[in-house]
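Fold these two proteins, one after the other.
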Amino acid sequence: MTMLAPEVDASRHDPAHLATAACLFRGLGDANRLAILQHLTLGEHRVRDLTEHLGLAQSTVSAHCLCLADCGLVTSRTQGRSTLYSLAGPEVLDLLAAAERLLGLTGETVRLCPRYGTQAPA
């Protein structure tokens, strides 16, 4: 099976566009934020639910949810005294699925990367 290359959009090579894309990946570059996103694939959750399911402090979950909302990756709505978070759209699901496929292809290579992996100097 031959894979076709996606159409090349010259604007995607623009430095400003690339800087914005890098900001997106920095927003995704935290294990707690990824855990929250993955949990939200199951549906809408309150911060309290996420705190219990993920074993994180309420302040940590709230801060990460706000970051994800600021990045446009999750949406929120108020219900009584609670804020409920959900994925902003199916594209977030697509991105997480693509990342899982890529991790399946690269195996431990990303984790072992001397520059950005778990053993990289801080």
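Now the second one:
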Amino acid sequence: MKSKQSGVTLIGFLMIMAIVGFFAFMAMKLLPSYSEYMGVAKAMSQIASEGTNGKTLDEIRRELFFKMNFQYVDDATIKPADITIQRDTGGANQLHVAYDKKIPFMYNIDFLLHFEKSVPLQGNLGE
């Protein structure tokens, strides 16, 4: 009586492990940047909830950078020019942050991530 065996061969198993390893390596490269973005979003929400009565754009930038330091956001990630305030047609202000992050992956392959977030501001801005 012959029994038929089924399963994954050693070569098949190694191929599966190579694919899983590739995606795990990709996740290890990308997850810190997304975690950093969550810190930026949290700092922006804190600024928006505190209000901006009489504050200038430079004061808001300084306060945002201060709060981002507590969220473990790298100082080189966001530049002051990436932080703007946009005025809507109704007169409401929005704090807008948009930045790109380049992450080396392997050899000459890089990931370019674009992050962008806007939050409505409460209060009037100073000049």
